[in-house]
Amino acid sequence: MKTGIHPEYKETTVTCACGNVIHTRSTRQNIHVEICSKCHPFFTGQQKFIDTAGRVERFMRKYKKKGK
Question: What is the domain class of 10-63 according to CATH?
Answer without folding.
Answer: few secondary structures
